[in-house]
Each structure stands twice: as structure tokens, then as C-alpha cells.
Amino acid sequence: MTGPILEARNLCWGPPRRPDILTDISFAMAEGEVMAICGANGAGKSSLLRLLYRYVPPRSGTVSLMGRDLWLHTARETARTVAAVLQEQPTDFALTARQIVALGRLPHRAGFASAALRDTEVVSAALERLDLARFADMPFGTLSGGEKQRVMVARALAQEPRVLILDEPTNHLDIRHQLELLALLRGLGLTVICTLHDLTLAAQFADRVLVLADGRVLSDGPPDLALSEHHIATAFNVTARVDRSGPAPRFSFHL
Questions:
Q1: Which residues does 52 contact at the CB level (< 8 Å), separation at least 6?
Q2: More confident residue, 246 or 212
Q3: Which pairing describes strands 34-38 and 239-243: parallel, antiparallel, or unpaired?
Q4: Distance, CA of 42 to CA of 21 (rounded, Å)
Q5: Which of 33, 44, 96, 241 can bridge 215 by disulfide, Cβ–Cβ 3.0-4.6 Å?
Q6: Tens digit of pLDDT for each residue in 219-252?
């Protein structure tokens, strides 16, 4: 497709009978583009993601998926294109890791034997890709926080989406698995939107960074421009220094 795969136009949203949390949010995502959303706690990052994966409709403005209003797509249509990995994890500990990942195939279920074989292949490939094959038949509740997080990413990959939305995907992961996961996400060829607290990881991982402050877009562009000392200071209410002398920027912060 020639236009953006996902586009937000003048989005505003807030809880019922309360003021807007998000105000006038606009951006467009090209196919295969990777964006990190950064900002202080309460800036509206998770709320913005909920609008993008069709959990809540905007109060005003639109989200378009492949040129069509997201809310004109059915939930099933959306789930075939957009997958989300949230910070909240399932509480049904009776399911195995494999069964959790297999839930990602529900939007594609057609009831044919050939489809069932395809589902099995896709689930096994997702488990392998996230280095989870040895945990596949273990109860989800027995896994560590990092292992659970990787299972949820594998479930999203099993949906075979074109857009992948993740809320703090590196939570619960050790340093090695953080780097491995972000490298995997970059190599998928998908449009990826994720929130990240770690500005260093955001700068290394993303094609562009969108910084939110008080529910508005403060900056949106390549990491070098979006994560300037001024923007970081404004968004996080700290004094920021960015050292760009090495191969990747290093950030320091002071009150």
C-alpha cells in the first residue's frame, strides 16, 4: 500500500465525565516503521495505545487502519492486522504456554483441517522464535515474569499481524532478553509501536520517537531530534544531558 498503514488524526480522549487525558494527537505510520512512545508516568502513553488497538474509541478525531476508520473494521478484522502486547498478563494459570500462544490464532480460525495444521505450525514457530520451546507445555503460572512476557509476545506473533503494539515490552526482562526482544521486533518487518521507559533503548531501537507530555505530542521524529535535552527536560521535569560522542547516545538526569 502507498499510504500510511496506521494514522491518528487529532485524537482526543478522556474517561467518561472527566477532562481529556489526550489532546490533539496526530501521526502516521508507514509500513515497517518502528516507533517508540516515551513520556513521564501519567503522560497518556497507555491511553494512546488503547485507542490504536481499538480498545476504546476516541472522544474526537480518528484512527485509520489501511486508510479506513478503525471502528468501521470489525473486531475480528482488526485482530487479523493489529496485535497488542499489554502489561497486564492472563490470570488463567491452568493454560500452558503453548495454549496461550495458540490464542493468537483465534482471528484466523476457519474450522478446516488444513487451517488447524497451519495454526500448529505458526504457534510452534512463534515459540521457537522467542526461545520458548522448552517451556511450551509448562503451565503459564509457573513461568517467571520474563518468560510470561515472552509468551505474550509469541501470542501476538501467532496472530500474523501487520501492526504490532506493545506496552512496555521490556518489563520483567533481563538485559540480554531486552536486547534480544528489541532486535527481534526490529527484524520482523512489521509496523511496531511500543512504549518504553528506557530512553537509551528507545534511541537504539526506534526509527522515530514520539514524546508525550501532559497528553500532547511534545516531539515526534528521529531519536536524535525527538530526544533532545530540551524535550527530555520538559517531558520529565528534570535536567537532562545527552552524550552523543559514542555509537549510541547516553543520557544522564538530575533534579
A1: 6, 8, 63, 70, 82, 165, 193
A2: 212
A3: unpaired
A4: 9
A5: 44
A6: 999 999 999 999 999 999 999 999 988 877 889 9
0.85 exceeded by pTM: yes
For residue 204, list its beta bridge partners.
Answer: none
Per-residue pLDDT tens digits for 145-196 = 889 999 999 999 999 999 999 999 998 889 999 999 999 999 999 999 999 9
Strand partners of residue 253: 240
Length of the chain in residues, anyone? 255
Asked whether residue 86 is domain-assigned, the answer is no
Expressed as residue numbers, the domain containing 226 is 1-81+163-255
Q: Tell me if 32 is assigned to some domain.
A: yes
Element housing 38 (H / E): strand 34-38
| Shared domain check, 255 and 177 | yes
Q: Read off φ and ψ for residue 6, nearest 5 degrees.
A: -140, 135
